[in-house]
Amino acid sequence: MSRAMDNLLSILDLERLEHDLYRGISPDAGWQRVFGGQVIAQALVAAQRTIADDRFVHSLHAYFMRPGDPAIPIIYEVDRIRDGASFNTRRVVAIQHGKAIFSMAASFQCDEPGFDHQIDMPDVPQPESLIGEVDLKEKYLQYAPENVRAYWERERPIEMRPVSLTHYISQEKLEPIQNVWVRANGIVPTDRRIQDAVLAYLSDMTLLDTSLFAHGLSVFSSRVQVASLDHSMWFHRPYAMDDWMLYAQDSPNASGARGLNRGGLYTRNGMLIASVAQEGLIRQRTKE
User: Fold this and answer.
1) Structure pTM?
2) Is 164 considered catalytic here?
């Protein structure tokens, strides 16, 4: 177990304060605000705590309203909207400093048989043929901006291998398409609820960046102000998270200082695990 994955699993184990009321903490990661994937995952865990063991999340829809403060705990309040014969609906509000910073609606379902189809996974190189994070740090990070170096040098619970590194080392305008292999940096427990929470956590990684490809920029650029505005996720098929997954992403539109991003998470053999959609703020900074 890596220290980063151990820390992630620790912060996902929320403290119960009262009926449908939970408290989560943030790791000391050096960020000025809480990572959005952490809030999504913790809110999902809070909702899961109010659901029967035979029901699992199939979709969530969230809004980020204020930046999270990593220095203080986050309070998660769960509202039991509906408990039906097959589906359960929950609403979760995350609170800091007496104000809502995030809200999420999530739906849970018992496993059922039914129609089955999916779109094919993109044809991309396998992760073993791509440069790993150790080699990336040794060969490229010495030329990268300080904020990019700080991001890649920090140990993370999720390991990433981008199919292309052009976006990180140039300002070339690219097609708004990104493929990144991701995997857990450590062992994820077999509990399906924990696996769903970790999957929700990683779904916020790299996604917003895709909408900046067409403009020769990245989330590390000082020329743009970026932030996740909303986040939706659909869980299609359970997966043990014991191997690489391809996070295939595209951005069909950017306008009004917002960029729309979509993603599909696939197993190595092409099974679609989950779909993601997110709109983010990509506001161009005015020159002083």
Assistant:
1) 0.93
2) no
| pLDDT of res. 288 | 47
- What token pair was written down for 168? 């990180």
Beta strands, E only, the chain: 15-18, 21-24, 55-64, 74-83, 87-96, 99-110, 158-162, 177-184, 224-235, 245-255, 258-267, 272-284
79 is an active site residue: no
> Residue 229 — pLDDT band, cuts 50, 70, 90?
very high
Residues 186-192, mean pLDDT to the nearest whole number: 94
For 184, phi then psi, to 5°, come to: -70, 135
Confidence of residue 2 (pLDDT cuts 50, 70, 90): confident
Which residue has 């190189």 as its token pair?
A: 125
Long-range pairs of 168-171 with CB within 8 A, sequence gap ≥ 24? 168/140, 168/144, 168/218, 169/140, 169/143, 169/144, 170/216, 171/216, 171/217
Catalytic residue among 196, 204, 209, 250: 204
Say how far residue 145 (Cα) sits from the centre of its chain. 24
Look up residue 227 and give its two tokens.
């932030």
8 A C-beta contact, residue 26 and residue 10: no
Decide: residue 34, CB within 10 A, 0-12 exposed, 13-18 middle, 19+ buried. buried
Specify whether 53 is catalytic: no
Q: Which domains does the chain have, with CATH numbers?
A: 3-111+128-284 (2.40.160.210)
